[in-house]
Amino acid sequence: MIVAEKIMPVNVSSTLDVERIRQDFPILRERIHGKPLVYLDNAATTQKPLFVIDAVHHYYRAQNANIHRGTHYLSQVATFEYEKARGKIRQFINAKDNKEIIFVRGTTEAINLVSSAYGRKFICAGDEIIISAMEHHSNIVPWQILCEQTGAVLRVVPMHQSGELIMEEYVKLLNEKTKLVSVVHISNALGTVNPVKEIIRLAHERNILVMLDAAQSIPHAPVDVRDLDCDFLVFSGHKMYGPTGVGVLYGKQQLLESMPPYHGGGDMIRTVSFEKTTYAELPNKFEAGTPNIAGGIGLGAAVDYINRIGIHKIAEYEAELMAYATEQLSAINKLKIIGTAKEKAGAISFVMENVHPHDTGTLLDLEGIAIRTGHHCAQPVMQFYGVPATSRASLSFYNTKEDIDALVKGLHKVMEVFK
Questions:
Q1: What does the alpha-carbon distance between residue 144 and residue 361 come to, in Å, rounded to a whole number?
Q2: What's the chain's average pLDDT?
Q3: Residues 218 and 228: beta-carbon distance below 8 Å
Q4: Which residues are catalytic?
Q5: pLDDT at 6
Q6: What does the pLDDT average to over 310-326?
Q7: Quick one: which of 157, 148, 155, 156 has its CA closest to 119?
Q8: Is the whole model's pTM more than 0.90, yes or no?
Q9: Residue 316 phi, psi dihedral angles, 5° rounding
Q10: I need a surface site. Which of 25, 184, 275, 348 has the fewest CB within 10 A?
Q11: Is residue 258 part of a domain?
Q12: Residue that finishes a domain, picked among 307, 334, 369
């Protein structure tokens, strides 16, 4: 076995020492318009700790080579590190086998892979696919495309004004025509934590497959695919402190083996002739061409970093921060929080009377505060609430109550401008 140079993350104390953790993120020391950066756009992308940055840099500096096919030393080292990262991810989500971990570019490609590879083989005219009213566009559009191609029908679970799914309506939608349920674990636009274990149980009682979009849940709370018993699960590296351009599709092995390839090319084949091609075993069957090797290694490093801090500690701290942020924002006159589910995590969306969210975001930026404004790739959610857009503050374990206080102070300045 090849032993490559190890770069270990810094030790973190037994309690969540946020100020110490913040030192691991160099970008948090930047100043924006002369003001200290307050970064509250974590649902769009998280910042990267030095441990991850160093891992990517080390690959390019000392390990750079293509993987799987080379007999020389660098290729063997790169292959070892890339496959080691796959193993870290398997353990992180408690999958059974490394074969169930498919590297992709991100959540969007993972959903498209399932809709294409599974859909074109198993979904037929008249079949039904269920999604929810709070989905990201990446969990809407691929299924619409599949329905247009196959004649299948897309069904949508409605939600309450609180931003919670109407589970009674979900049960009514399940029937003998339903072939797949694909729902978000935590809403990027509302922060709602959906009862996914119950959603899966109800579907499985009818032998219906379930895919979870875990892009927003994977950095905030433990995700155990065997405990959930989901059939597919997807997430992106850049939302969990890893590089952009890399993500994961988890699928139960027997399902992935039953699906045809998504892309054709190098590394996903066993034999090629002009008469017939046979395909490689999992996971290679779904990983055509040269992958984002540095991204995969960086994602493995991100998993190491999260594990070193402790995902349960992260969840506990962020819950406290979420409660504080909700309390402080609720106290602002003429500010309305959009989405008031009992179970929320990660994000708070809001609108302010007589102020467009884009103006809110622009003025906050002048104070060094980064939030997200717009429809958050969830236009049906905006239509449901009758707003063109919202402002969204999304949290991470490196955020503090002082960050929330700065946001509140900035919002009062916005109100002064537009009063």
A1: 32
A2: 95
A3: no
A4: 377
A5: 44
A6: 97
A7: 148
A8: yes
A9: -65, -45
A10: 275
A11: yes
A12: 307
